[in-house]
Design a protein that fits this description.
Strand order of the largest sheet of chain B: 2-1-5-7-9-11-13-15-17-19
CATH topology of chain A: Rossmann fold
Largest sheet of chain B: 10 strands, mixed
Number of helices of chain B: 10
Strand content of chain B: 35-45%
CATH class of chain A: Alpha Beta
Number of helices of chain A: 9
Number of domains of chain A: 1
Strand content of chain A: 25-35%
Strand order of the largest sheet of chain A: 6-9-10-3-11-12
Largest interface: A-B, 31 and 23 residues
Helix content of chain A: 25-40%
Structural class of chain B: alpha/beta
Order of helices and strands of chain A: EEEHEEHEEHHEHEHEHEEHH
Radius of gyration of chain A: 18 Å
Oligomer: heterodimer
Shape of chain A: globular
Chain lengths: ~250, ~450
């Protein structure tokens, strides 16, 4: 079992947002989650990554051999869960280099691997940055401070490339990207695809999916998955919107 | 005939006892210096003022958040036999290549200081003690006496200073290495009262590092006054590192005079002491002066940290920059008070003062008062103060990359504190400060 979400209910403050999500992801699969605003897409990403503001009041998430909900965000990250943020956070005064060096060594420690020294780390980082068409200067700059929207998203993909997670959750990574940035981000993601690594791609639009070609597409509405299908479902949504699916769901 | 006399001020028994004690100590010092010495009249005048005004209380606006009762409870001794452990003193010296000078319990130690024979000509360096041996020697330290004695600690300093440092650089003299002064305390409840004078001739350049630390039982009352005088185009950068034990008392008052096109840059880093109060008074009395004043304070438990600046622009085209950062944990109290005053003549002044504070506990307290007083009409001045907590979004972002919550809080807090160090131009000094600050603060971040 790679990832199995069963009957997941979650609320923030007093508002129930997820109302029974069921989702099974196998190694190497790419799942897209689509849906109108307020359907719970970002909440699902946050709950998977372990954000504390959300309270899970029913359901279960199994990830590999772990009860994911019992783990803190940092333990999840160390076990291979990665969240690419809708809004990557700025951290003044902390360089990308120090941040990623610390993060990578935290993960290596969890895996029982020796720490990478600064020299080896830098070599590795510069290699990955090159592929993402990032300037080496970005390594010295404070995390996301003064970065454009595209640079921030690229920086998140860079972190993903460095940490080589098993499960990548991408929370509207495509929002705010121009066409070139979208291509670079999508290429970065495609370069990381493998038989062992799975993706959950949360998005509003088909354009990212055109580049990434998901195996499965799920429509989230009112805290539930109301329809699942293949890539053709995304194309159908692009043409017809969500309304017909919502109406069909609400009639039942 | 009637005599008018001012009503006597009433002092609390605690304050009165402390005043009596410091009076007796001043009298002893004057006796030792010998009747008829020129300094006697100087000390007596300060003593008279002190007996009249006494210690400030919380009713004094400038001391509202800095209560002195814990200071007044201990009568700090002026005698004592220092325990000189050369290895321990060597170990606390900053790891910076420079001309190292050492004071032990308030007195200059020639043996522990570097041999200054190799210093370039044009540098005069003298201990305050040696200067005081001259009949009028104290006068080199007293250009700002009226301002110095605005404050009980200034008066105490005038009554009791017995050593210090005089540094003068002749015109265009530049020292390749910094002068590094370590004020080391080795005695408990001991008073260390020093005066310094730094004088740079036209175009001279100096980098000065001062640190206040303790070894053994060292834990006392540091009361220093420093006058800094920069002639035209002189350039000075200063770092003051204060990491005394948590029960220490630290009062430092600096008076800085800048002439045309002078450049002055100072960083104060305050980590120790039960009560600490660091003050700069900067007078920018020439065209195109650049001054920069920064501070970093980390306070925990019941520490009180008080940082104050006064920046006077009196001539055109002056630029002043300030960034003051405090991190407060536990029940610590932080105080920032800054004033930029721009005279009518000081057109084109560019003044910026920023104070940012991070509160790690909801019992910590920050009192900030940034002020502008502007009489010119063509200036660019700004001031601001903001206090907040660590952002939960930042912590989650770091945790989502595998850093523990503790690592994340440490990283964010240290980054917040380190920002003012970016303007330390000397890389070796900046590296030392970053490492020392990280090592000093990290154990208290969780």
């Amino acid at each position: 079992m790679f990832l199995n979400i069963e009957n997941l209910h979650a609320q923030v403050e007093d508002k129930t947002i997820l109302k029974g999500i069921n989702l099974r992801v196998n190694p190497g699969e790419v799942h897209a989650i689509m849906g109108p605003n307020g359907s719970g897409k970002s909440t699902l990403s946050s709950v998977l990554a372990g954000r504390e503001d959300y309270e899970v009041n029913a359901g279960e998430i199994r990830f590999l051999d772990h009860d994911l909900l019992e783990m803190d965000a940092d333990e999840r990250a160390q076990q291979g869960v990665f969240l690419a943020f809708q809004y990557p956070v700025e951290i003044p005064g902390v360089s990308n280099k120090l941040f990623m060096h610390t993060a990578l060594n935290a993960k290596r420690a969890a895996e029982g691997l020796p720490a990478l020294d600064m020299f080896d780390f830098e070599q590795l980082a510069l290699e990955k940055m090159k592929r993402l068409e990032m300037s080496p200067i970005m390594l010295e700059r404070s995390v996301n401070v003064g970065f454009s929207g595209g640079e921030k998203k690229r920086n998140d993909i860079f972190q993903m490339a460095m940490l080589e997670p098993k499960l990548c959750i991408m929370d509207e990574t495509d929002s705010g990207l121009d066409i070139d940035a979208l291509r670079i981000v999508a290429n970065g993601v495609n370069a990381l695809r493998s038989n062992e690594r799975s993706f959950i791609v949360v998005t509003h639009y088909q354009r990212l999916l055109d580049h990434i070609k998901p195996d499965f597409v799920h429509v989230l509405y009112d805290g539930k998955i109301i329809k699942s299908g293949g890539f053709e479902l995304a194309q159908e949504l692009e043409e017809r919107g969500y309304d017909h699916l919502i109406q069909a769901y609400e009639k039942v | 005939m009637t005599t008018l006399s001012k009503p006597m001020k009433k002092f609390s028994p605690l304050a009165q006892a402390a005043m009596d004690y410091y009076q007796s100590q001043a009298k002893q010092l004057m006796q030792a210096e010998g009747e008829g010495h020129a300094v006697t009249a100087f000390r007596q005048a300060a003593l008279n003022r002190f007996l009249e005004q006494g210690f400030p209380t919380r009713k004094d606006e400038d001391w509202q958040f800095t209560p002195l009762s814990n200071f007044l409870k201990t009568h700090y001794a002026f005698n004592g036999v220092s325990r000189i452990d050369e290895a321990a003193i060597a170990a606390v010296k900053p790891k910076v290549d420079g001309w190292h000078l050492v004071f032990v319990d308030g007195y200059f130690s020639e043996i522990l200081s570097d041999d200054l024979a190799g210093m370039p000509s044009g540098v005069s360096l003298e201990s305050g003690k040696d200067a005081l041996d001259f009949e009028q020697g104290f006068r080199v330290f007293a250009d700002h006496e009226t301002d110095i004695e605005q404050d009980a600690f200034g008066m105490l300093n005038a009554m009791l200073f017995d050593d210090g440092l005089f540094i003068e650089l002749a015109a265009h003299v530049r020292l390749a290495k910094p002068i590094v002064v370590s004020y080391v305390q080795t005695l408990a409840s001991h008073a260390n009262t020093t005066r310094c004078k730094i004088k740079l001739g036209r175009g001279a350049q100096l980098q000065l590092i001062e640190q206040y630390v303790a070894i053994d039982a060292g834990c006392g009352f540091e009361n220093s006054v420093c006058e800094i005088d920069l002639a035209e185009q002189a350039k000075m950068s200063q770092v003051i590192w204060q990491n005394l034990p948590e029960q220490g008392m630290f009062f430092n008052n600096q008076f800085i005079d800048l002439a045309e096109q002078a450049q002055f840059n100072t960083h104060y880093i305050g980590l120790g002491s039960a009560i600490s109060r660091h003050q700069n008074h900067v007078q920018m009395a020439g065209e195109r002066i650049e001054s920069e004043q920064n501070s970093i304070c980390f306070a925990r438990n019941q520490q009180i940290m008080d940082t104050r600046t006064y920046t006077g622009h009196s001539v055109e085209w002056g630029a002043s920059r300030q960034l003051h950062k405090l991190v407060l944990a536990d029940q610590a109290i932080g105080v920032f008070n800054g004033m930029i005053k721009v005279d009518q003549k000081a057109q084109k002044t560019d003044g910026m003062m920023d104070n940012k504070n991070l509160l790690l506990s909801n019992k910590a307290q920050m009192n900030a008062k940034p002020q502008l007083e502007i009489y010119a009409d063509d200036v660019k001045c700004s001031h601001g103060s903001a206090s907040g907590q660590i952002s939960a979004d930042q912590i989650f972002y770091l945790q989502a990359r595998g850093l523990t919550k503790q690592q994340a809080r440490q990283l964010v807090t240290l980054a917040f504190l380190m920002e003012p160090l970016e303007s330390v131009a000397d890389h070796a000094v900046r590296d030392w400060l970053q490492q020392a600050l990280s090592a000093a603060v990290t154990p208290y971040l969780n």
